[in-house]
Design brief:
It contains ten helices and 14 strands. By secondary structure, it is α+β, with helices and mostly antiparallel strands. The protein has a six-stranded antiparallel beta barrel with strand order 7-9-8-12-14-13. Helix 2 links the parallel strand 1 and strand 2. Helix 3 packs across helix 4 and helix 7 packs across helix 8. The two termini are 31 Å apart.
């Protein structure tokens, strides 16, 4: 009893008594859920939890499945997949204003290629889900919202939990999603980034931060960061917080391929790229990026459309189970 009171005082939780609903992306991480999830499920059931499981069958299915589950009263969702799967589930759990359609809490079972968003909280292994449900802390986190041009020319809006970017990052994500992911997150994105750097051309972009134009000219990439990590462990936004109500915005000016491969790419993995003169950085709640020619964008590793874009932060929109103390250290 004393331990229970101590955990409650620390904002920690005990094992939920209701049914846990699991949304499984069976093709995430080259089929990693099939190898890792069954053992996690058996462990949860051995603790007395009822686990109801559904599988995504195509891109976008996670949005519909999560919305249906929450509308039917689901309160605990396990997300078994990568950042793209988490992205879909979150988009299904929120309405057009960024408000939850029900009081739901997400627990991530990391099984994807990049796994960058859970990495922020120290969630790196699928089996951690058991302790997250038993002892984890409910953390209320910000998400990003972005309005963009879909490939059919229409205007669309989408939420992202970790990162959205324009240009080089989106082209890398497109290559990774179409190629083999057997190399794993780090190597898949490293190979993809190197390959894209050799082919990518800068685009003429205009960036507005809080309504003020702060950049105009050729840029290789613009990144909008809610979380710190990107593309399999790049420390693209080492100062980012998911609880401060702001986005970290980065622009990479035009530089040679030699500089990109020789100094900037290694620096991004170390998180030391901010000192480079080709990197611009702003912190804001709202940003717009415009271009004459359409430039591809991605959200949480999935290519969704092109510029022009408007993006903003939705503060404390999502409840997430994280290890005890991780909510504070991710701020």
């Amino acid at each position: 009893m004393e331990e229970t009171r101590t955990r409650a005082a620390q904002g920690l939780t005990t094992l939920p008594t209701e049914t846990v609903h699991a949304i499984v992306n069976p093709v995430a991480g080259s089929g990693r859920p099939a190898r890792a999830w069954p053992a996690v499920r058996r462990r949860l059931e051995s603790l007395g939890l009822r686990v109801e499981e559904v599988h995504t069958t195509e891109p976008g299915a996670g949005i519909a499945l999560s919305r249906q589950l929450v509308e039917r009263g689901a309160r605990e969702l396990l997300v078994i997949g990568g950042d793209g799967t988490v992205n879909e589930v979150v988009n299904g759990c929120l309405d057009a204003q960024g408000q939850p359609i029900g009081p739901v809490t997400l627990t991530i079972v990391p099984c994807g290629t990049g796994r960058d968003f859970p990495r922020l909280f120290g969630i790196v292994r699928p089996e951690q889900a058991v302790d997250l449900l038993r002892y984890g802390q409910r953390c209320r986190v910000d998400i990003g919202a972005i309005r963009f041009r879909a490939f059919d020319g229409s205007s669309r809006q989408r939420y992202f939990v970790n990162m959205a970017d324009i240009g080089l990052g989106a082209e890398t994500a497109a290559w990774v999603s179409q190629s083999t992911k057997q190399l794993g997150g780090f190597f898949a994105y490293l190979v993809g980034a190197m390959r894209t750097i050799l082919r990518h051309r800068p685009a003429e972009l205009v960036i507005e931060v809080e309504g003020t134009t702060v950049f105009g000219g050729p840029a290789l990439m613009v990144a909008l960061a809610n979380g710190r990590f990107h593309a399999g462990g790049m420390r693209i936004a080492p100062m980012a917080s998911v609880t401060d109500g702001k986005l970290e915005i980065f622009a990479l000016r035009r530089v040679s391929r030699f500089v990109l491969l020789g100094s900037l790419l290694p620096a991004v993995y170390r998180g030391t790229h901010l000192a480079h003169p080709a990197v611009e950085h702003w912190t804001a709640r709202r940003v717009a990026v415009r271009s004459v020619d359409p430039v591809r964008i991605e959200t949480d590793g999935e290519v969704v459309g092109t510029t022009d874009i408007e993006a903003w932060v939705v503060p404390k929109a999502l409840y997430l189970r994280v290890p005890g103390g991780a909510c504070e250290t991710s701020a």
